[in-house]
Amino acid sequence: MRGLIVDYCGVLDGPEEERARWRALLRAAQGNGVAVAVLSNDPGGPGADHIREFETSGLADAVVLSGEVGAEKPEPEIFDITAERLGLPVADCVLVDDSIVNIHGAVERGMVGVFYQQFDRAVVEITGLFELEGEF
């Protein structure tokens, strides 16, 4: 696995303590050569600047917003677009999302899916998939 794709709403937008833990995890992933994307079904436009900040701050290599690319999760095209933006085949990517429907769509497209319910549970799967070490 060489690509980590994380949903924004319901995953990255939690309480500040959890957001800090996500930032540390994303930095560790990038430091280990993992390409990182934030994928959201957000409509885009100026109201999505807080999501784009992941890319402008360097915490993500790409931010993909459904409203700006014309496809949304769980449609197969959105996973292709996101993997392409990371320069990776879909099969090299992991999607972390709080919607089981989106996880099913990603898996059907060839990705590995991590169903997000709680950070402490997801971090075990993510660190295992990407061989990351550290305290998150």
From TrEMBL:
Keyword hit for Hydrolase: yes
Pfam family, one: Hydrolase
GO-annotated molecular function: hydrolase activity
Keywords annotated in UniProt: Hydrolase
Keyword flag Metal-binding: no
Highest taxon above the source species: Bacteria
Name of the protein this chain belongs to: HAD family hydrolase
PANTHER family linked to this entry: ALPHA-D-GLUCOSE 1-PHOSPHATE PHOSPHATASE (PTHR43611), FLAVIN MONONUCLEOTIDE HYDROLASE 1, CHLOROPLATIC (PTHR43611:SF3)
InterPro entries (alphabetical): HAD-like_sf (IPR036412), HAD-SF_hydro_IA (IPR006439), HAD_sf (IPR023214)
